[in-house]
Structure to design on (659 residues):
């Protein structure tokens, strides 16, 4: 029988229930009580009328009139609501622009000092990275409050509202539709800001302190700084942000304020996202999963969720065929809404990892998200992060010392050891030499998925007919965070063997490593290559010690693979940037590029090409982009001497494949 030890009283008193951040009214469970931004008829009717292409736009609009006047004006609109002149006039008269609660921080007040650039051998990459660094000021914001509030008579008034959760310090946004700070994005943003130095060292600390404020207020870090995110979090990386800051700056003064708050967040996950898992040998383990209390469409994706849950037929975009469906009953709809929100909490919204029937998505013949089973998946990546948090909290106690510090450090170390043991027992598959998510529905590892056209030999071998072995960078989080057992993570031969599947992916296509090896049309599946996943794969390799010496062939193979993975990501980012107008003193703009274009950094890239942005999912590919910048800057710092000037081949201007 394996379970976590009871925490000492000093920590246990921090426990609480997540319901404090929820709005419950009869059968409705929503993120907050706002009749505009979280629940109710105004939200439902306006979103279903689709006045904006993106559902998120409406819930990001602050009001310019008091809430009572907005509600009264809505009640006077002709019903049923439709996207007509009357609705557009109402929106223009009673709401400000999305994001107008924020203002850019003046560029002349922001300095950079990226000294690591001196160690980047390629002049082209050095200049490219410097241009990426110079994107940070364009993404830096401060909260200034809603626009001027006026009454119907034209005078100043109070009572205007906004969905933005006020923040006391400057921060960096991801870019595009993501106008607010997001939780897990910020880890990789901070990795880039710390290396940018200058003003951005303080801004990295500001981001951390803003999140600490949110935990102090709500008990957890919301998905993003909006009221409609108050029922869910994201992968809990705040402890790792603090660790990265302390390691990079050697400034431990933040720990006195941070440690109690980080423990409070940890208890949120242990109180509200813990599940008991029984294996085939009848052993019981405690691990964590994503499980949001919610039975409504997500406000920022209201129409998309509503259509998924309520349409009785499915239109397949790839073929134009309309497939008959089935009507969901109320219980099934509510469960679907909970799984949609839980998938969003995972950060992987959405992926075949969370689907009961991934073939629906792969074949595009039914609502792919109707088979979401997020709450019943125990993910490798989430539990790896929580392992890292337990180790980090133990280390912080050892750093600060004082009464009970030794006991608390030992407690967290024991919890981490228990988690690593549980993950090895449930998730590690010796035959495949890989970790796999645990599926509570089948009470087994999620090893196989439908066969894909570009499956590698290793993915087909030993798989049942018509299936392949799942591949995902999520399986390598234990190497990044150290959750893998010592015999595995400290043995270069074993790590190299586990990473053979990653090396094989480099032979499949010219781009970076995809989120999975199954094409579904969902954005966290093949062919999309996400910057944070490249970081995780690479850092997992870099963590491997030279146990048998630096001349050990397995150790050298690991180092070479890390460089190759970094080169793939940098090449994808650079060549896509080049094709969208980017240039350096050594490489002028491509012929045919608009002279005003300066190159674009995207949220995600495409495995199939070195100059292709990613696609799929619920929204258009986003430019900016916070975590992409951060990972690129990190890679340039780590591998500056090894990275070569990317060879983009015969690309043309604006040759972007949004597949």
């Amino acid at each position: 029988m394996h379970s976590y030890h009871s925490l000492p009283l000093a920590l246990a008193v921090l426990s609480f229930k997540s319901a404090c951040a929820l709005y419950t009214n009869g059968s409705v469970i929503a993120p907050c009580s706002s009749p505009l931004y979280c629940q109710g008829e105004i939200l439902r009717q306006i979103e279903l009328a689709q006045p904006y292409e993106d559902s998120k736009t409406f819930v990001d609009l602050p009001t310019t009139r008091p809430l009572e006047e907005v509600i009264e004006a809505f009640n006077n609109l002709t019903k049923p609501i439709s996207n007509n002149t009357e609705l557009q006039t109402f929106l223009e008269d009673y709401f400000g622009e999305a994001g107008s609660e924020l203002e850019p921080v003046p560029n002349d007040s922001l300095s950079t000092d990226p000294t690591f650039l001196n160690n980047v051998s390629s002049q082209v990459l050095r200049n490219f990275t410097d241009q990426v660094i110079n994107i940070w000021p364009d993404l830096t914001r401060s909260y200034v409050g809603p626009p001027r509030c006026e009454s119907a008579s034209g005078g100043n008034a109070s009572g205007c509202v906004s969905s933005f959760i006020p923040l006391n310090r400057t921060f960096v946004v991801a870019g595009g539709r993501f106008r607010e700070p997001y939780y897990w994005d910020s880890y990789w943003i901070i990795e880039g800001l710390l290396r940018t130095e200058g003003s951005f060292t303080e801004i990295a600390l500001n981001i951390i302190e803003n999140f600490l404020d949110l935990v102090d207020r709500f008990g957890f870090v919301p998905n993003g700084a909006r009221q409609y995110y108050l029922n869910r979090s994201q992968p809990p990386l705040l402890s790792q942000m603090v660790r990265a800051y302390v390691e990079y700056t050697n400034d431990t003064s933040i720990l006195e304020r941070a440690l109690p708050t980080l423990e409070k967040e940890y208890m949120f996950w242990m109180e509200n996202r813990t599940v008991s898992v029984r294996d085939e040998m009848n052993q019981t383990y405690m691990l964590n999963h994503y499980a949001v209390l919610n039975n409504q469409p997500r406000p920022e994706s209201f129409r998309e969720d509503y259509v998924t849950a309520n349409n009785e037929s499915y239109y397949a975009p790839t073929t134009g065929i309309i497939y008959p469906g089935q009507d969901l009953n109320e219980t099934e709809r509510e469960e679907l809404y909970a799984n949609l929100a839980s998938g969003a909490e995972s950060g992987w919204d959405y992926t075949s990892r969370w689907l009961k029937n991934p073939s629906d998505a792969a074949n595009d013949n039914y609502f792919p998200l109707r088979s979401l089973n997020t709450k019943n998946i125990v993910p490798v990546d989430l539990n790896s992060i929580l392992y890292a948090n337990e180790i980090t909290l133990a280390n912080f106690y050892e750093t600060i010392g004082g009464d009970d510090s030794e006991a608390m450090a030992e407690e967290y170390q024991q919890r981490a050891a228990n988690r690593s043991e549980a993950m090895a027992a449930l998730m590690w598959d010796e035959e495949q030499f890989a970790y796999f998510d645990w599926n509570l529905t089948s009470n087994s590892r999620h090893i196989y998925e439908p066969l894909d056209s570009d499956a590698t030999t290793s993915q087909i071998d030993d798989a049942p007919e018509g299936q392949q072995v799942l591949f995902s960078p999520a399986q390598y989080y234990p190497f990044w965070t150290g959750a893998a057992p010592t015999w595995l993570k400290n043995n270069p031969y074993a790590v190299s063997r586990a990473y053979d599947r990653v090396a094989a992916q480099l032979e499949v296509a010219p781009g970076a490593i995809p989120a999975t090896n199954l094409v579904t049309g969902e954005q966290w599946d093949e062919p999309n290559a996400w910057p944070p996943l490249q970081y995780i794969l690479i850092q997992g390799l870099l963590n491997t010690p030279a146990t048998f010496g630096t001349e050990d062939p397995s150790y050298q193979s690991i180092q070479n693979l890390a460089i190759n993975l970094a080169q793939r990501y940098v090449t994808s980012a650079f060549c896509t940037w080049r094709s969208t107008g980017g240039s350096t003193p050594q490489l002028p703009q491509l012929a045919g590029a608009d002279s005003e274009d300066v190159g674009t950094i995207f949220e995600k890239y495409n495995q199939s090409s070195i100059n292709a942005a990613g696609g799929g999912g619920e929204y258009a590919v986003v430019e900016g982009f916070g975590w992409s910048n951060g990972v690129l800057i990190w890679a340039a710092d780590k591998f500056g001497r090894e990275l070569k000037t990317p060879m983009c081949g015969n690309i043309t201007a604006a040759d972007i494949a949004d597949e």
